[in-house]
Amino acid sequence: MPPxxxxxxxxxxxxxxxxxxxxxxxxRDASSVELTSACLEQIxxxxxxxxxxxxxxxxxxxxxxxxxxxxLATGNGGPLTGIPVQVKDVMCTKGVLTTCASRMxxxxxxxxxxxxxDRLFDQGAVLLGKGNMDEFAMGSSCENSAFHPTHxxxxxxxxxxxxxxGSSAAVAAGEAIYALGSDTGGSVRQPASLCGVVGLxxxxxxxxxxxxxxxxxxxxxxxxxxxxxxxxxxxxxxxxGHDAKDSTSLPLPAKDYTAGLGKDIRGxxxxxxxxxxxxxxxxxxxxxxxxxxxxxxxxxxxxxEVSLPTTKYALACYYIIAPSECSANLARYDGVKYGASYQDxxxxxxxxxxxxxxxxGPEVTRRIMxxxxxxxxxxxxxxxxxxxxxxxxxxxxxxxxxxxxxALVTPTSPVVAFPLGEKTADPVQMYLTDICTLPVxxxxxxxxxxxxxxSDGLPVGMQLIGPHLSDxxxxxxxxxxxxxxxxxxxxxxx
Length: 494
Hints:
Blueprint: H1 18-27, H2 32-50, E1 53-56, H3 58-73, E2 84-88, H4 115-122, E3 126-131, H5 165-172, E4 178-182, H6 189-195, E5 198-201, E6 222-226, H7 229-239, E7 269-273, H8 283-298, E8 302-306, H9 314-329, H10 348-359, H11 362-375, H12 381-401, E9 407-411, H13 427-432, H14 438-443, E10 447-455, E11 458-465, H15 471-484
Parallel strand pairs: 2-3, 2-4, 7-8, 7-9
Antiparallel strand pairs: 1-3, 4-6, 5-6, 5-10, 9-11, 10-11
């Protein structure tokens, strides 16, 4: 255990895992009001420095906590009943601002909830507020928010990762027991790694995207951020499942993702892709992940080196497909239907132009322009169509490897948290921080980031990747590793 972290949860109720909090509530040893108050108190203490929230909802939280306590008193509470959560500000919340950290939506109040949010509320979850993020989920550092950057709780001069930086920072800082984020190219897993918490990107189609403000529809997926693998499994139980309102939602029966936790991993075959340990991976990160792989091997899993040669094309492939889909999805923000609207003109085209100039920040503008170019006449075949063909090759690469192994072990991020402002002037260097996570989204696979050590006093995450719909297996492997280590129990001293 590093000297700057401690597994001791005696500091307060706000440091409990979701599972621990549920046990206390079920036994009536603590109330949801007490648990929520502890989180709100921590927010009051550290939020000015961490800045993980865009919108706080303390009155709503206390009202929901009181309702949860009444529900628990009748014996009808579930695993999430009465437990405070932060929701990334890219998911619609009825009656609560949903800004996507953008000026374009700074006054947008939805009239409905995202399906994932509804499912949390059906369980009796308590909403603390909306998490800060890179604008429209476009970024890897949470510095692209139109309102303020979020700071890493382990070192307030460094980034928490992105785009779900607020989600991971809130959990790491003890402001929320767990959070919901979204992952388009690593936006749950990378910040989870940089903040020393657990993050799960479920298989594409497993969790409804209805009410998730679209960035790149073929890549986006909602996933949990929490303090333990078991917590992520509990949340997945609640948010996974078919939703007729989402055409990409898989018609699968309900499943208990906690059922496999604690099962022996002896005999499982784990692959270590050489391409994920290439130049650019910091030595401390490499060592921590290699040590984690050895730990898993000690449980009886076999570990072998594998190759995914198309990995080198993933970055270019992603930054053609994602901006192209972004260009189409964000065309709806034209100052007419909803969102920001420039009114000081009688010219429709000027109004649209000024609206988009005001509403979108530089990174969003950059990606819209990239996507529009890739989709334009004369360039579609050369860029977008070719990127889709490369996507097929990446998927085939994974399918080939998964014929011989059950899961892959890689770094989540090639680097630990970097200083605020260090990469903002160099977009390519910023994009490279997602090099280990992008292929997972391109192929629609599940990915799990689990804390596996520290480098230079900063958290390192191990990423587990599996075939489509192998989420339960990844959780099983991650849980086995977690039970043998204490990295996930460390928290920063704020």
